[in-house]
Write a structure and sequence with these properties.
Blueprint lengths: L1 H31 L3 E3 H6 L1 H4 L3 E11 L7 E4 L6 E6 L14 E13 L1 H19 L8 H26 L5 E15 L2 E4 L3 H4 L1
Parallel strand pairs: 1-2, 4-6
Antiparallel strand pairs: 2-3, 2-5, 3-4, 5-6, 6-7
Length: 201
């Protein structure tokens, strides 16, 4: 009886191991077969890629010099721009990436902007402006002037959001970006992985 039970347990362990191995192989195959697509294709078929891992190729036209936490890549149509943010492993983007063709690997994120979201954004912006107003005559600090300019830009962006929502039949607009886990620079048809802040340490 014990031999029979042991035999059944051994079969169950083997089947479970095989199943786990097959699942792992399937996951690896999916990752390995992921191929780079254009910014244009992503933006024209966003519903197909939201919350999924993608590899996107594009030209870096801007890296945020203040924080390094955002950059934008362009598609074949230069009007198609996609924002890229780094995950914790990458940390920040180097300014030297500007002007390079890159392949970004990451997850496409979606943000729904409706009237409620805009109202919340207006409140946050108003609070920041009120705080800045306390230092308006403190001696013309250049950094404060730059922050004031940023707030003015935010107001314009909010007004544009309102106009876009009003024109939308859905009652909202959506923004998309990729949270990147890897950045590879394309040089002479070859790719080279960009150094992360973690690697630099």
């Amino acid at each position: 009886m014990m031999k029979k039970v042991s035999g059944l347990l051994l079969i169950a362990v083997v089947l479970f191991s095989c199943g786990t191995k097959q699942q792992k192989e399937n996951q690896e195959t999916t990752t390995n077969t992921l191929s780079a697509i254009s910014v244009d294709k992503v933006l024209s078929n966003t519903s197909d890629y939201v919350d999924k891992e993608v590899m996107v190729e594009g030209l870096v036209n801007h890296v945020c010099s203040h924080s390094g936490k955002r950059m934008f890549i362009l598609g074949e149509n230069s009007d198609n721009a996609l924002k890229i943010t780094p995950n914790d492993k990458i940390g920040i983007f180097e300014k030297e990436l500007e002007g390079n063709k890159v392949i970004i690997k990451g997850v496409l994120k979606e943000l729904i902007i409706d009237d409620e979201y805009v109202a919340q954004l207006e409140n946050e912006t108003a609070e920041n402006m009120d705080n800045e107003a306390l230092h308006e005559h403190s001696g013309g600090n250049h950094e404060e002037e730059e922050e004031a300019a940023v707030d003015s830009s935010k107001i314009k962006q909010i007004e544009q959001m309102k106009a876009d929502i009003a024109e939308s039949e859905k009652g909202f607009v959506a923004q998309y970006w990729i949270e990147a886990s890897e950045v590879e620079v394309i040089e002479n048809g070859q790719t080279e992985k960009a150094e992360s802040t973690e690697d630099a340490e």
